[in-house]
Amino acid sequence: MASIIGINLKVSIFGESHGKAIGVNIDGLPPGIKLNLGNIRYEMMRRVPARTALSTARREEDEFEIISGYFNHRTTGTPLCAIIRNQDKRSKDYERTKSLMRPSHADYTGYIKYRGHNDYRGGGHFSGRLTASLVFAGAIAKEILKEEDISIGSHIKSIGEIEDVSFDYIDLDGDILDKLNKEALPVLDQSKAKEMEELILKVKKEGDSVGGVVETAVVNLRAGIGSPIFDSLDSHLAKLIFSIPGVKGVEFGSGFSISRMLGSQANDEFYMKDGQVRTFTNHSGGIVGGISNGMPIIIRTAIKPTPSIGKRQRTIDIEKGEGAELNIKGRHDPCIVPRAVAAIEAVVAIGILDLMMEEGKWK
Amino acid sequence: MASIIGINLKVSIFGESHGKAIGVNIDGLPPGIKLNLGNIRYEMMRRVPARTALSTARREEDEFEIISGYFNHRTTGTPLCAIIRNQDKRSKDYERTKSLMRPSHADYTGYIKYRGHNDYRGGGHFSGRLTASLVFAGAIAKEILKEEDISIGSHIKSIGEIEDVSFDYIDLDGDILDKLNKEALPVLDQSKAKEMEELILKVKKEGDSVGGVVETAVVNLRAGIGSPIFDSLDSHLAKLIFSIPGVKGVEFGSGFSISRMLGSQANDEFYMKDGQVRTFTNHSGGIVGGISNGMPIIIRTAIKPTPSIGKRQRTIDIEKGEGAELNIKGRHDPCIVPRAVAAIEAVVAIGILDLMMEEGKWK
Amino acid sequence: MASIIGINLKVSIFGESHGKAIGVNIDGLPPGIKLNLGNIRYEMMRRVPARTALSTARREEDEFEIISGYFNHRTTGTPLCAIIRNQDKRSKDYERTKSLMRPSHADYTGYIKYRGHNDYRGGGHFSGRLTASLVFAGAIAKEILKEEDISIGSHIKSIGEIEDVSFDYIDLDGDILDKLNKEALPVLDQSKAKEMEELILKVKKEGDSVGGVVETAVVNLRAGIGSPIFDSLDSHLAKLIFSIPGVKGVEFGSGFSISRMLGSQANDEFYMKDGQVRTFTNHSGGIVGGISNGMPIIIRTAIKPTPSIGKRQRTIDIEKGEGAELNIKGRHDPCIVPRAVAAIEAVVAIGILDLMMEEGKWK
Amino acid sequence: MASIIGINLKVSIFGESHGKAIGVNIDGLPPGIKLNLGNIRYEMMRRVPARTALSTARREEDEFEIISGYFNHRTTGTPLCAIIRNQDKRSKDYERTKSLMRPSHADYTGYIKYRGHNDYRGGGHFSGRLTASLVFAGAIAKEILKEEDISIGSHIKSIGEIEDVSFDYIDLDGDILDKLNKEALPVLDQSKAKEMEELILKVKKEGDSVGGVVETAVVNLRAGIGSPIFDSLDSHLAKLIFSIPGVKGVEFGSGFSISRMLGSQANDEFYMKDGQVRTFTNHSGGIVGGISNGMPIIIRTAIKPTPSIGKRQRTIDIEKGEGAELNIKGRHDPCIVPRAVAAIEAVVAIGILDLMMEEGKWK
Fold first, then answer.
1. Hey, CA dihedral for A196, A198, A204, A206, is it positive or negative?
2. Cα(A266)–Cα(B304) distance, rounded to whole angstroms?
3. What are the sequence ranges of the domains in chain B?
4. Nearest-5° angle of CA B121, CA B124, CA B130?
5. Alpha-carbon distance C305 to C160, whole Å?
6. 3-class DSSP state for residue C23?
7. Rounded distance between C-alpha atoms, residue B203 and residue B210, angstroms
8. How far apart are CA B271 and CA B275, in angstroms?
């Protein structure tokens, strides 16, 4: 009951990092959608490690095989399932230390939850690798949204203490987002990309890791998407985003900083422009009362530093029930923030398409 | 499909601020739970306005009537429905200005969503008043959790720029939380209560409003609650919390600030204490891989300043399709943060009980 | 989790036969639907007992109060909740015999399920009275379907051994169904109404009860409604119909008798008529592959004789854990079949509307 | 939203008859269940065609590959996905006639539903082949139920006009059911197997097909399983059974024939036997008020004759929008009833396990 989500569009993901394959089943896609497999592969490449020195050395090709729901280059309307075979696994790395719970990894909570029966290799079902399935589903969702001119894009708002500027919450168009989509380290202030890269290489050298914040925007989403109370746009997107490993905070519009404002500062006053309803400011991040208001959707996601670090750590041996020391081997990212971008955009696309389908699944 | 939530415990809420009543239907409660109606009334009183000068002058008694699912002072196991009649409504206040969209209220998005058919009086179904139903359901959930020694409590982390200290994330017991539950302005550093109160009175006088942050903790929740991927404890709680009107950000543990840390700082190393698995730090806020790890759950919620302010604002007249000015009359809170505390705790209690029931609905 | 149903339109019912009230919450109705309260009252009157000598002497006015989701005589689009107060309860009748499990009633299974905490008076949550909530919701669904010219109607196919003729499965129009809706004992062969009435009065006199079969039709439902695999039209309707107390069998089209045919007899061959796709026969009952094919939907529902009979029966005393004898007092129907008609039509209307909404909730 | 079912145990199926593969994803299995793959293969063999002259000549090996959720020969507790590659497809057979709608097949309704984009080859997603996925999932469910001594078995109650005797509804033990599971044409009166076989060969020779009824029993299911109103045991099982292609009727216990009884005949009176609550008769088929009462569960399912027949039929050409004639080639079953047995038992096992999990997912 845990790995399925969606109201009108049900997405279920399955698989473990070192099992035979991971995959996704998407139930509820409209029929007749022509898929651009090249675009899907591009999105999946965005989250693949080993593109640069900034990431883990594990090579994941993420070649997907569409099993069902796809006929004559179009969706059929019946469940579309795809699997991605796992390759270049070094499961032996995990065998030796399987009873040593890696701090801030899901080893311990997974062990308790599944009474020791979960596949611990490479994080198993908890692995960030599972986000490849989300990115696949999100790429399809993005294609469908693109037909309605809706764009989703992100920049890295910060890595460690290095901070990029923010999106313009008012005047933001799809071209900027599309341009960001093409970069390995998408930032608005290009000078920050270099600084971030240097920081990542530095912590990598130290066997450490670093976190960051991703700022995501959705433009051209019409007003009226999302439903009070519990299927509100922010509730639904937050649930999806918190499902991505490593996320510790989500905020919309001015987010936590709106809590410091007065109402007279925070309220987004309305005006008409060319027959369109707009607001002078966008502290709401495009969502009021859980429903889109036609302004850009603004989301910030806080990502913790990868818990996989090369440093010696104190831990416990779960089978012996006693303290232990851990020195993790293996290939790990010093910073998962750049890779998380694709996963965040994917779940945002899935969540928005899902809620939009309330207004009619078949066009 | 919007006003129902839950996996094992389904909570559906209904009603509008100025309609006949609001209410809640709770499906899936275990049978035989003895309800302490006094405790439920106390919880509901916590979110009632007009307790002090700090709140709106509207009197809401929030007298609930249990309609079903309650027999011989105990739950029956069948749906428990309760309604709360609306009283002291001044709907006329809203009639005059119904086509003037109040900035950062759900007037506009509700109008679009429901094509002008929603009940606009007092915010209708979007009103904060709906949280009374959540608090009722949450009070029952709290009682059931209390039987397992699980406590939920909060303090006001900040109002405007005035900031309280944080919870001790490691050594936190239920007594502190119970004590906080009894205060109108719960803070850890008592000197801050006075400052916050002064600030609220000041903005009230100015016809303005102010936001804040609530920090909530859950103690004695055993490890193993929550399910990867999408029914993770953080995903589930975030969805519930973002359903509360006015929430713009949610973070767990060190939240956004963890994004600035190195992995070697952020990782919560393990140790054994009296046969229990514990961590030296609790940056994770008690949740790793979407599952509780036995440490205190720490949640911070950002709440925007009430959009209802007494100042003149620019807006649009939705029927005329042109710009307009708005001068809101009516009785409003200068700060909903103290009242939001009860609502946040309620949905946290509902969410945790719901996920715990996975392990067996009937005891 | 038990008393909520629906995919796009969620209907949840609550209440017990002798509690304060029963009710229903409908989440997902389109906004702006003008409700004809007279029609709703008429539908509810159809299931009310005590209309004739054929039914129980209990008077139930079934006056409903709409609590929410209804504003200016129209649906708002937010949850529409209605409650129906319980009156003329004779709970004392049940107190004396509460530990004596009435055969083929839900006393025993309810006792086990809810560990003795369920409200046993008058069957509690299991009572046929709960169908009043379904009929209320169904009446609204019927109104919405009527706007698309879709009619639902039924006749009593049999009571005991007395059998009416069948619907014409090919040429069936809404007028016939509307006419049947107006009769207390709707039959196609009027001579059977008299015979059925006599049989019911005879078994009543003997303190016994009798069962029957209801045949329901839906006309003018367009092709394409229902989804393979599990949300198929027949699956969805069957689930709803089996939720009505006393139903023991459901069949579509030629149903059980199709199992005796050859394929060459059972297949519904196609032809074109005035540009419309039609079939020469309708053994499929308008549903193929779980999806409507544009022909009339034909459903037959088997209803058991009311288990409440005036005769002495062998049973057990659940508290003493030993055999006992039971002599039920109270006012009971000798035949619930005529009253079940309204309930069956209600859930069929709810189920069809729910599946139709997949194609767009708001029109 | 169509191909997923389940409350506590979510089963989603995907695939098309002539696509790459079909498969199933099972979310919510308890961790640590040792799977007997031999038993699973045996169950899948039961529904495989071409075992005897009685079935289609298509060879389907139904070799499954478990992709996830299975580690060290045990379930992990995370989603268990398996795929079954499609082989020996003769898709060409379907290309030539793709615009000719086969009577009583889902060609036409599928075409309308999916606007001509569904995979029409071999029935696509509507094919009976999809039940292989259900049988796989059901085999796992059966294993888990077996641990609690719960057995599920069936006999063929009738094929055409040839009728077997009925189960003994009162004294029925698992051994009889286990024995039936081993037979290709399971019947209680062995003389009927020969007659049925002769009938099937006769209609095969004539290029025709024949339907039948399957009677299924579940023994040793404890009282208390199933929830009023909509998740009742009969509602839930009926929904699942009607999802199997070709099912036109479902009844429990005495089913349609109970409608002809008097209450004094139909009521199942209670008595105590060795401290156990039992009933003298079992017209209820083990379900009262939607909840199991501890007596054997009795279900009868009506299956239509396969619509694939070798005879010339009248139909339409959907693309030309005009009448046409159809002469189906290809390999088809003259009678799918024997193969349906495995599918029915599978969904009954899934449905019962799902509802039992309400009482605690992890043991």
1. negative
2. 8
3. 4-359
4. 135
5. 9
6. strand
7. 7
8. 10
The Cα C146–Cα C349 span in angstroms is 10
Measured between alpha carbons, how far is residue C61 from residues C39, C51, C92, C342 in Å? 15, 11, 20, 15
* Nearest by CB: C293 against D109, D258, D284: D109
Rounded to whole angstroms, how far apart are CA atoms D96 and D324? Answer: 14
Q: B303 is written with which tokens?
A: 């709440």
Q: In this predicted structure, what is the pLDDT of residue B56?
A: 55
Distances (CA, A) of B360 to A113, B96, B357, C147, D356: 14, 52, 5, 45, 10
Length of chain D as a residue count: 363
Q: How far is A177 from chain B (nearest CA, A)?
A: 23
In degrees rounded to 5, what are phi and psi of residue B239? Answer: -60, -45
The CATH number of the structural domain formed by D4-359 is: 3.60.150.10
Q: Is the ipTM of this complex over 0.85?
A: yes
Residue type, D250: V
The per-residue pLDDT for range D80-118, each reduced to its tens digit, is 999 999 986 666 767 778 999 999 999 999 999 999 999
Q: Looking up tokens 């109104």, which residue turns up?
A: C143
CA C116/CA C121 separation, integer angstroms: 12
For the beta carbon of residue A266, count every other beta carbon within 10 angstroms: 27
- Per the listing, tokens 């309605």 go with A148
Our separate counts of H helices and E strands in chain B read 9, 18
| Residue whose tokens read 């509730």 | A235
Backbone angles phi, psi at B240, to 5 degrees: -65, -45
Nearest CA in chain D to A118: D76
Give me the residue from C78, C228, C361 closest to A358, CB to CB: C361
Chain B positions in Cβ-Cβ contact with residue C28 (cut-off 8 Å)? 1-2
Q: Are B182 and B154 in contact (CB under 8 A)?
A: no
Q: Tell me the sheet residues that pair with A214.
A: A156, A301
pTM exceeding 0.80: yes
Neighbours of D37 (CB within 10 A): 12
User: For the segment B3-60, what is each residue's pLDDT rounded down to a tens digit?
Assistant: 999 999 999 999 999 999 999 999 999 999 999 999 999 999 998 865 555 655 555 5
| Angstrom distance (rounded) from CA C283 to CA D309 | 16
Q: Which residues pair with B212 in a beta bridge?
A: B159, B303
